[in-house]
Specification:
The complex is a heterodimer of chains A (225) and B (85). Chain A is mostly helical and 225 residues long. Helices cover 76% and strands 0% of the residues of chain A. In chain A, helix 2 crosses helix 4 and helix 4 runs antiparallel to helix 8. The radius of gyration of chain A is 21 Å and the shape is globular. The mean pLDDT of chain A is 85. In chain B, helix 2 runs antiparallel to helix 5 and helix 3 runs antiparallel to helix 4. The chains are: A mainly alpha (225), B mainly alpha (85). Chains A and B meet through helix 7 and helix 8 of A and helix 4 and helix 5 of B.
């Protein structure tokens, strides 16, 4: 059993550690929030978490309307996992998304989410009518764009983080000859990990929100003017 | 003919041409450079017109830049695949 664990690639081990850490942390925070009475004032840390999730919920309500409670937990979970995974180089773990298998599995997940939600919320006949919206001649093009958009989302994550890892090694070896190690990491980590990593996590979350809301919205009735 | 098979069509020839292809693939870095610079210029102009909306303009600009970077990243992935050949 230990043999199986130590033969995995380092990205996968880091992914398992991050997932376990997030599960434990959110269970503890959820129980603490459950126990608050409405007349208590929460502490500083709980207050920050409540404000952040309130802000994300309001943003999701703008996009979805009535069904926001179905999709909000999924989207916020993806945002937190990606935010923690992209900054995991700061604590010494390998970056999980620099592995092509993990990054492409995100795109498979986005594709399945959009298709299954579209088929369940709007019944399959309506979904087919949505896909051939202006004219039925555009049906092959719409199908191709349904496949290629989640693929582009996953490849965007993979390319950004892989190039971040490679450039970090190159810049470190270059600057290490001139300055000391501390100065080089002060330059590398804010740019590559905190800058690009968090921006890409937010972009994936926004794109998934937008495409999912486009797949399940009712078409508006046009007013005859 | 034997000289050709021995000195030209062997494995280092294929590897050299793959590396040359990786270099040519990175010419695709011009596109995102121009596009993202243009978008940043428009964002700066919008901030100059209404300085209170700085937060929203910055967020929208960053999302737009991340989208425009995608084709440059495709070229980078192809270059990595070719280097490994």
């Amino acid at each position: 059993m230990i043999d199986f664990y130590t033969n995995l690639s380092p990205n996968l081990k880091a992914s398992l550690i991050i997932t376990g850490f997030l599960i434990v942390m959110f269970i503890i925070i959820g129980r603490k929030i459950d126990k608050l009475k409405p007349t208590d004032t929460p502490g500083k840390f709980l207050f920050m978490i409540i404000m952040m999730i309130e802000m994300l919920n309001n943003q999701i309500k703008d996009f979805y309307g009535k069904q926001w409670k179905t999709f909000a937990p999924l989207l916020i979970a993806i945002l937190f996992y990606l935010a923690f995974a992209n900054t995991s180089s700061l604590v010494g773990l390998a970056n999980p998304l620099a592995n092509v298998g993990i990054a492409l599995s995100f795109s498979v997940f986005a594709f399945l989410t959009i298709q299954i939600s579209g088929l369940v919320v709007r019944k399959p006949w309506n979904r087919l009518k949505d896909l051939s919206a202006p004219t039925p001649l555009l049906l092959p093009l719409n199908l191709i764009s349904e496949i290629s958009t989640p693929l582009a989302m996953g490849l965007r994550l993979f390319g950004n983080l892989l190039s971040g890892s490679v450039m970090a090694v190159v810049v470190f070896n270059l600057l290490n000859a001139l300055f000391s190690g501390l100065a080089t990491t002060l330059v590398l980590h804010p740019i590559f990990n905190i800058g690009f990593g968090l921006i890409q996590a937010f972009v994936f979350y926004m794109l998934l929100t937008i495409f999912l809301s486009m797949a399940i919205e009712e078409p508006e009735i046009e007013e005859a003017s | 003919m034997n000289l050709l098979a021995e000195y030209v069509f062997n494995e280092s020839f294929v590897s050299g041409l793959a590396l040359l292809g990786a270099g040519i693939a990175m010419i695709a870095g011009i596109g995102p450079g121009i596009g993202q610079g243009f978008a940043a210029g428009k964002a700066v102009e919008a901030v100059g017109r209404q300085p209170e909306a700085l937060g929203k303009i910055t967020t929208t600009m960053l999302v737009g830049q991340a989208m425009a970077e995608t084709t440059g990243l495709y070229a980078l992935i192809i270059a990595f695949v070719l280097i490994g050949q």
